[in-house]
Amino acid sequence: xxxxxxxxxxxxxxxxxxxxxxxxxxxxxxxxxxxxxDASHDETAKRARELGLKVFVHPExxxxxxxxxxxxxxALKEGADIVIMLHPDYQYDPKLIPEIIKxxxxxxxxxxxxxxxxxxxxxxxxxxxxxxxxxxxxxxxENLFLGQKLSEFHTGYRAYSKKLLxxxxxxxxxxxxxxxxxxxxxxxxxxxxxxxxxxxTRYMKDASSINFxxxxxxxxQTLLSILKFSLAKIGIIKSRIFIR
Length: 244
Hints:
The protein is of the alpha/beta class. The chain contains 8 helices and 7 strands, in the order E-H-E-H-E-H-E-H-E-H-E-H-H-E-H. It has helices spanning 18-23, 44-50, 63-77, 97-105, 129-146, 162-165, 179-189, 212-233, and strands at 5-11, 32-37, 54-57, 82-85, 111-115, 158-161, 194-198. Strands 3-2-1-4-6-5-7 form a 7-stranded mixed β-sheet, sandwiched between helices. Helix 5 (129-146) packs parallel to helix 8 (212-233).
């Protein structure tokens, strides 16, 4: 039986780009599209409703991680077998949806990451040099401690299996950007499989992006997440992100 595929869009001030993102989604492969508006100051929710998306609006800003918690909760309520996170700022290519769900459909992975570094277009696509360097450093560190061989951990374009999302305690995760890292750490901790596909890099004026200060905080929180994983695996600590 064909799996139900739900695209979720964690949105904040994406009124200018939500339509172009939506237009590039290959509807043949997608059963439902959900947008969660994290208390935007523009007409993101209005534009999304005009496009026929299922829209949820946070009355107050909950942060990137808090937005995703609503995304995945609502997708699972819709009976999703595969959930794709796609930012509505058009930074990632929606046309890759058939490729990103394929490893899950074929039973080869539970989490698929769309890697900008695997495509070799990070710098030419406009990724700031400091982000490229920090991305490479953190990825090397994460591969070492998590026992993986991934080219990039820090992509916002991902596909998850229902089994993964119903197993990991993502509601215990951070409300901010490190949520993404914690999900990967949980995926490894609970024994799920990760793979990746190449994805072109697109940095544009209207795309959302984390600034230098928040990037630094994110990097430190990522290192802390890896430390928690390492200590939890050998039983030295108990962390709520690993307790179901």
